[in-house]
Amino acid sequence: MSEKFTGSFTQQEALPEAAIEAALNVLRHGRLHRYNVTEAELGETALLEQEFAAQVGAKYCLAVASGGYALATALRAIGVKHGDRVLTNAFTLAPVPGSIAAVGATPVFVGVTEELTIDLEDLAAKADQASVLMLSHMRGHLCDMDRLMQICDAAGITVIEDCAHTMGAAWNGVASGRVGAVGCYSCQTYKHVNSGEGGLLITDDPEIAARAIMLSGSYMLYERHLAAPDPEVFERVKYETPNISGRMDNLRAAILRPQLADLDRQVERWNARYQTVEAGLRDTPGLTLVERPQAERYVGSSIQFLLLDWSADSIAEVISRCARRGVELKWFGGAEPAGFTSRYDSWRYAAAQSLPKSDRILAAILDMRVPLTFSLEDCAQIARIIRSEVGTVYQAG
Ligand SMILES: *Cc1c(COP(=O)(O)O)cnc(C)c1O
């Protein structure tokens, strides 16, 4: 009898009691709109921004309706216009190229390496094609950020970081989101803090911050922000920046604040689970783990491995055998995307590109969520199941 895993890959933990208390408090007073505050009151949303800015060491922070909204707002705030070209990852999630399309710009895709990071050689080769890079730290993998910034600085490229999977991560001790001109985070249920939907945007640039705040729908109430530039910066932009409402509300901010305060502890818990799965998969014949660089502090909220140069049929066989034993693997390389799109050739509003080196890697990526509701024993069991099914199919092939 082979063992079967019975846990759920989509079940998150309950929110902490402090978040539930804070939510009830907001519900009881009813002031959910971020600018609906009493005389002396500091609203939950403004406090969230102030606390997150301090946590990552940024000057300014804006809380918004979603991670994708934060990305599009960042593009608008740095001045990307209709028809511009924006460099971005060939391997990322749909909201990333979607944010580029939202401002009428065109994505130019940069390849992916076996480390699942942006291909810096391909980036250098394409550096003259755009003046903005929307850099996605897809699935939490950080590229060599020092080298990346050398390339971008030399080419005059402004970098926006998509930190949907790297909230809590760092490169050489610098928090993810603090290297580019703007860092964007998602607070959607499957990221590192959970408000259902939500996003955060950070920057040290006062003009970008003021424009982003106006864009998000601050009306003329920007002085109620606690992590915003001085009012004179708004004077310069307030009549020429359109309102494209996408504010965060006080209810979501209230439940996020206690979660952010607890982020480091959650990162430890994710990484203990990640490392248990990783240890269980190590040295499985035919399976390539993604080794994490020394300089990277990662958050193991999901794990990826490669079945490089396997046939599509064999990979599909591994996935279905694992599924029968309760282990849900996502395959980014399937001919038809399932559940969501993560690959450049799925975004056909952009001009078709050919990235053969990336195609080989994309075809090989398997991905698994590591929810905190899994115990370490669960993680060890999941790794045993994957290992045995990969082994069975590998030997047969
Ligand atoms: C989730 C995610 C986003 C933002 O998603 P929203 O659902 O809009 O918050 C951006 N990039 C990546 C890679 C993501 O996974």
From TrEMBL:
- Pfam families attached here? DegT_DnrJ_EryC1
Can you tell me which residues the record assigns to a coiled coil?
none
Upper lineage: Bacteria, Pseudomonadati, Pseudomonadota, Alphaproteobacteria, Rhodobacterales
- Which family does the record assign? Belongs to the DegT/DnrJ/EryC1 family.
Keywords of this entry: Aminotransferase, Pyridoxal phosphate, Transferase
Q: Which organism is it from?
A: Pseudophaeobacter arcticus
Q: Which InterPro entries match?
A: DegT/StrS_aminotransferase, PyrdxlP-dep_Trfase, PyrdxlP-dep_Trfase_major, PyrdxlP-dep_Trfase_small
Does the entry feature the keyword Kinase, yes or no? no
Name the Gene Ontology molecular function terms of this record.
transaminase activity
This chain's protein is named: Aminotransferase class I/II-fold pyridoxal phosphate-dependent enzyme
